[in-house]
Amino acid sequence: MVVFRVKVFGSYNLGVYLRVAGPYLLAPPATSRLIGEEAGEIGLRIVETSVYDSRMLGIFLAGNSKSLLVPPIVSEDEIRSLRDKLDLEIHVLPSARLTALGNDIVVNDYGALVHPLFTDDEVDLISKFLGVKTVKGRIGGVPVVGSLVVANNRGCLISPSADDAELRGASEVLGVECLRGTVNDGIGYIRLGLVASDLGALVGYPTTPVEIENLAEALNIEP
After folding, report:
1. 89-108: per-residue pLDDT in tens?
2. Domain extent listing, the chain
3. Whole-model pTM?
4. Statement: 3-218 belongs to CATH 3.75.10.10
């Protein structure tokens, strides 16, 4: 299986810094020298950028192979840079309350599950921009669904805190089967320690062999 244990800037919380959107791995400056080879092995091209003058791209960005959503706190220069570097539509989501889009949205090319505090108009915009059915929901009763689920177009890993109805709901909206699991040796906030493409995944160093086997099955990552 194509799963690599890595760290970024000394941290195992990869999802704070990294965001997959289509064929791209959006990452802070200087990331290529750290994990460029591993990213290439799972079919991703690193694009180095910043959001709100921050390295925490994974917290602020959400996207799929059609579009990348950015919060209104992103500067015009940063938006211009993204449009120059990516062959994706770049859309500013005008949400005044929810700007940590990576925490609040989990999306693939089939659907999106989003924080329940998005307004109906914002949900309509998310659906329009990403080109997918979009549904509000929670995982384990927690609204920051983007922190508790990682999905590609082949499968989905979801926090063990998800009850049966939440698991079925996530599977239905994302169009792939979701399986429960953890990363980083027992952490249920999946995205903290995992980024994935359709071909492979990067996980935090503490992630155990059993967790790696489970996430590979969940994301349908083949050897």
Report:
1. 999 999 878 999 999 999 99
2. 3-218
3. 0.96
4. yes
